[in-house]
Amino acid sequence: MKVLLIGDGARENALAEALANSPKGYKIYAISSYTNPGIKEAVDKTNGKYFKGNINSAEFVKEIVKEVNPDFGVIGPEDPLFHGVANVFREEGIPVVGPDKECAMIEKSKVWMRELMWKYNIPGRLRFKAFEDLRDAINFILEYGGSIAVKPSEQVGGKGVKVIADLQAYLSNEKRNAVTKGINGIASYVNDKVKIIIEEKVDGPEYTLHVLTDGYTQIPMPLAQDYKHAYEDGIGPETGGMGSISGPKEGLPFINEEEYEKSFEIVKLTAEAIKKETGKDYVGILSGQMMLTGIWGPTIIEYYSRFGDPEASAIIPRIESDFGEVLELLATRRLSKAKIKVNPTPSVVRAIAPLGYPLNKTMASNHIINIDVQKIRELGCKIYFGSVSFEGMQLVTKGSRALELVVINDFKEASDKLDKCINYISSDTKLIFRHDIGRTIEDQVEKAEIVRYTYKSREKKGLFGVSADWSPNGGLW
């Protein structure tokens, strides 16, 4: 059976490995923008074929689909989904893991997503405002006078978010100028009609629930938590993710079973709303990037229309059943037959990136990385290749996160083992990574307990999901 995989990062390396290790004997074909050594290993192992080209080009992918004639496809990243690559597979009669572009709007447009949640009264929704004119956005922030999150209205790889906290009526000119500069910086990420979305700011531990859905059946995956910021203790610019944790079992130490079930219900209701809005079944992975907040408990920050990265690297290695077959059943809309057994032991993922990431891709590109893969594997670390290309018998960085190391063990032991594995990676540039991933569990548990007390108290008083604030003119939202 032939599988065509689209994508070139660590997430796709994890998916390729799962397919290559399946007892069903899949032959893997892949399309990437460069030669990812981990994906190539899976392709070579199964006697498939590797294609290089524009993974966002529906026409190019269509040519390869016609050449390969796969039994099903798997689309890893979001951008091909936004460009209608899943539509191409289905137009050619090929089942595929990945929603059509109409359904992928749940990730592509934060405005579309927020409007959908309010239209269909889905729990976990936040108040928001969308602005075409940047001056209107600035005036709203200054008049509102409270804490808000300012984001590009379109998906930009997890970057561009600014939080503006507790603005007061006596705000100085310097602070006003800082607000203006921050919003203009966010606006530079997008050029579409609606440039800025402003949401009420919430606080609490973040986590992600990925749900497999074929339009008939929904299966929740184990929870994961992503570490977005570049540097330790959650400081520095936002990235695509510098690491992740998952477990133990299906949850996380700071999310209880009731919250897990509520999160699953929110994602299921969203899948149903997408069907009502677009007329199309959602077939693929629908992922809720959640936060446990004092307003709702489980609250939606944003959605992914695919597996998160590096969350996929934390989750997929913990699946003890045949995940390759699960992907086939998902693509062919027979998900009710799938059985997923999860290793109860937690996992910790640490991403490694060249200096310059995430703000200067040029600085982070074209560096040589040396890896003692055998030694790393002997130590019990799994390695997934991300933004690194196999060129002339060397590994060359492409400007983003180059590697993701994974260990399945108790959080402390896993973190200690990752420290040892890092010693077997070197480069002609400085490499950045975070030591604190998997080492902040107690802080997260304490934070969750405080938030849990708040939302439970609000629920008893009939204030669940209710927000209130004051402004001179009132009715800002």
What do you see in this structure?
The protein is of the alpha+beta class. It contains 16 helices and 25 strands. The strands form 6 sheets. Strands 12, 15, 18, 20, 23 and 25 form a 6-stranded antiparallel β-sheet that branches. A hairpin with a 3-residue loop joins strand 16 (284-293) and strand 17 (297-304). Helix 8 packs across helix 9. The longest helix has 22 residues, at 257-278. It is globular and about 60 Å long. The model has no long low-confidence stretch (mean pLDDT 91).
Topology, element by element:
Layout (H helix, E strand, L loop, with lengths): L1 E5 L3 H11 L6 E6 L4 H9 L3 E4 L5 H11 L3 E4 L2 H5 L2 H7 L4 E2 L7 H4 L1 H10 L8 E4 L2 H11 L3 E5 L9 E3 L8 H15 L8 E5 L5 E8 L4 E3 L3 E3 L2 E3 L3 E4 L4 E4 L10 H22 L5 E10 L3 E8 L6 H5 L7 H9 L15 E8 L6 H4 E7 L1 H6 L3 E4 L2 E4 L2 E5 L4 E6 L2 H12 L2 E3 L3 E2 L8 H20 L17
Parallel strand pairs: 1-2, 1-4, 2-3, 4-5
Antiparallel strand pairs: 6-9, 7-8, 7-9, 10-11, 10-16, 12-15, 13-14, 15-18, 16-17, 18-23, 18-25, 19-22, 19-24, 20-23, 21-22
In terms of quaternary structure, the protein is single chain
Per DSSP E runs of 2 or more residues, the count of β-strands stands at 25
Q: Between the first and last Cα atoms, what is the distance in angstroms? A: 53 Å
Mean pLDDT: 91
Helix/strand class: alpha+beta
In the predicted model, the low-confidence regions spanning at least 5 consecutive residues are: none
Please give the largest β-sheet. Answer: 6 strands, antiparallel
What's the total helix number? Answer: 16
